[in-house]
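ok so I'm stuck.
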Amino acid sequence: MSLKQQASSGSEVDERLAALMTNANAVRAIAAAVEGTLGPKGLDTMLVDKFGDVVITNDGVTILTMMEASHPAARMVVNVARAQQEEVGDGTTTATVLAGALVGEAVSQVVRGVPVTRVIEGIKKGIALALEELNRLSRPVAGLDDPVLARVALIAGREHEDIAALVMEAARLTGREKLRERGFKLADAVMAKEGAENQVFQGVIITKEPMNTLMPTSLEDVKVLVVDDALEPEELEEEALGTEAGFKRYLELRQEFREWIHKIVELGVGLVLVDRGVDDEAEEILTDAGVMVIQRVANRELEKAREHTGARSIKRTGLKKSAGELENYLGRAARVEVDKKLELVRIFRGAGKPAATVLVGAATDEVVGERERIARDAASSLQAAVRGGYVPGGGAVELALSRYLSRQKSQVRGMAVYGFECVIEALKRPFMQIVTNAGFNPLEKIGDVLAAQEEKDSCSLAVDCETGEIADMLELGVVDPTPVKYHAIKAAGEIAVAILRIDTIIRMKEEEKKKNSHEEEWLER
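replied:
not stuck anymore, here's the structure
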């Protein structure tokens, strides 16, 4: 081959690798942004916006979603992190670190000349076998009193004992069956407020106050009406009001509406929750009758109140139903109480589905968000463990999976073995980063731990981050929910494969970008 042909061939290779190298660098940069937060000795990250406002956190998904990530590959990682958070509520840092390591190992193999398709084949095989083995190593939670749950909550809660205790109590009040429901998220029961006292109670919170100070601040044995609409009479067009017939119709509608409101009073309703606004006359009548009315309640809070009290939502036109029919729409609560200091209303012990609320106190407004994130992580991890069991933490189970894949390598044929080896090496990365963040030499420690795991045939040996000594993570109580690990490994594999499959990067025409943007807006609506 002539020098000209060699140069041409080299140029083509460089062009083919350009997209991969660019994307890989973006993924590794994202991983570098969060890897310092991993483990019990991980540090915080400060995020600063253009106005100088600051957020200090070591929550992976918060860092990823709030940081400026303009590169398309970086945004892919952020989107997968969001999906991980939505699915299991934790593990985004582990997923990102694994993805960065996996992409880095894959690029090294491609640069050496291994075809991308073979690398992808090996990665898919390795991830699939790792997930199978992870499920085999998983241990079930005995029940809500299992001590391992307290450890899960404490670790995910970054060693905040008060938060872990709150989350554990909330789990007990909610019940195991509810925690295992697919659509239920214990993290949604968490709320942090400046100046609040730590509290867990059976009930829900409405983050609004009653319409006026003349309404009661405390009610016992309460009937609850949920109006998924405005509590106002039907409106007429301006043109209609200008006619005699129209004005007469207006008076009829007002009278009819007034009768509906009196019907609410006669039914003995104590609390009315309204999705939208409330008419002035309705407010006056209900206030005089000692009814507590809260307007413009957020949809999510309205839904929680409805479920917990057993109420059925009703539109304003539904109020024309007879008193007997309306009775079937009412919910019940043992007590309703206004907290003027925190500007909210608590609904206690509803007659519907069980619900618990975790109210986390914070000394200042600056730490409210972080305390809430910590509590949500603890709640999500605890619920994940109840649903899918737990495995040793501290990077121990990833090392065990790496050892397992090394024994299975003979099953992989051809050049796919190089992709398989990428998974083996990437699985070592979480442990190495945890050890690094704890201030120890990762190369020294990983050799010692792998040898110890092999010698004792144990999947739970890692390094005690306090002493640097090899220790059994299960004995130390260092555990992670299996679903969190499962989705982290799965997500990392998906990111790596998606990045490796991109061969070319082409800038879209402005017209096409606008079209896609309009389509996305339409779909969101």
